[in-house]
Amino acid sequence: MIGLGYIGLPTAAMLASRKIKVIGVDVSQHAVDTINRGEIHIVEPELDIIVQAAVSQGYLRATTKPEPADAFLIAVPTPFKGDHEPDLSYVEAAAQSIAPVLKKGDLVILESTSPVGTTELVAVWLAQARTDLSFPHQAGEQADVNVAYCPERVLPGKVVHELVSNDRVIGGMTQRCSQRATELYKTFVEAECIPTNARTAEMCKLTENSYRDVNIAFANELSIICGKLGINVWELIKLANHHPRVKILQPGPGVGGHCIAVDPWFIVSKTPEEARLIHIARLVNDGKPHYVVDQVTAAAANVAEPVIACLGLAFKPDIDDLRESPAMEVVQLLAERKIGQILAVEPHIEQMPASLAGFGNIELMSSDEAIRRANIVVMLVSHQSFYEIDTGLLEGKYVIDTRGVWQ
Ligand code: SAJ
Fold this sequence. Notes:
Layout lengths: L7 H10 L4 E4 L3 H8 L10 H10 L3 E4 L7 E4 L5 E2 L3 E2 L2 H10 L8 E4 L7 H12 L6 H4 L6 E4 L9 H7 L2 E5 L2 H11 L7 E5 H32 L3 H8 L22 H8 L5 H25 L6 E5 L14 H12 L3 E5 L8 H4 L4 E3 L2 H7 L2 E4 L18 E4 L6
């Protein structure tokens, strides 16, 4: 397993739990040392127990350098760079790192979310490094090494469960590649493994996340329209969803996380002329934090000394993950505008995040204290605990509820 992050480590642990010997490879010595102690360096429920068992029973060990194996799974990051173009440097580095230890009969699977054509690129990179072996783009079904694309589609927070129970799309460069990849996944996947080709599988992953992004953008655009027309968007969506064929998602302060806000760009950058709806959905969702900040700024203009309580920093409810969070963006933008004192609330963390610590006008505190001291209250994340807030505390204050908690 090349890459021991949010996807690689749980997948490695799952294979190891089926008594398959797994060598986990990561460039981070800290990750390698932590895993070899039977511990984990990421937050994911239930994963610690599985890793602990796999390591202590000798089925999983970690190292910084690839070693010979029968199958290689690549689960490294694919961020974007510059003008939202995919950065394939981690995938290329992973391919270069396994090339020297590849042998005839091996299977290589790419799991990282990737633009269409990346699996073929991996095969080309491997072929350039190993002219003594043949690959599917050269030798088809007779290739010495099989190559496939099999995207992950697990939800952070439910990874251990979803790895086993989600259907898998298996995109082999040939039918034999799909067959061999299916055999491997079937060792722990209890759901369907559906074969297709590599390009379709790559596009399938991007499609799933773009579908969600476009649908959230629809809800976010509705919330802006309703704001202008004086309509309660939460009531509107609830009513519209009574139609048997309508299922509108929920608006919010924007779209966060490392997948939905990134993957649609992989389609846009490949087909910019054609991907118009997907592109505009990204812009709608990326614009939402700015819309929220404008709402707060307008409220602050009516208050002599604005004190703004911002409820929630995580990128979605009931997790502690602050990365790519629209709530964090709202708080940062507000702090930069210097329109008042900001009281940040995030029940899942104990310390002020480093990226907010530099501002002199942000304090971290409990929701009760923040609401008591504030004259403007901004709901940013619908954490379960926020539903228990006494709404009597909100009386006489400006309330900007981006999540419909107090609808
Ligand atoms: N959000 C809304 N309104 C909604 C639903 C979500 O504003 O109605 C926001 C969330 O608050 C969050 C963002 O969207 O900021 C993304 O959250 P999410 O729960 O939709 O998705 P992720 O990023 O945690 O995981 C997604 C999943 N993809 C789909 O549901 C199609 C997951 O299955 C993928 O494996 C994952 O991306 C990934 O790794 O690609």
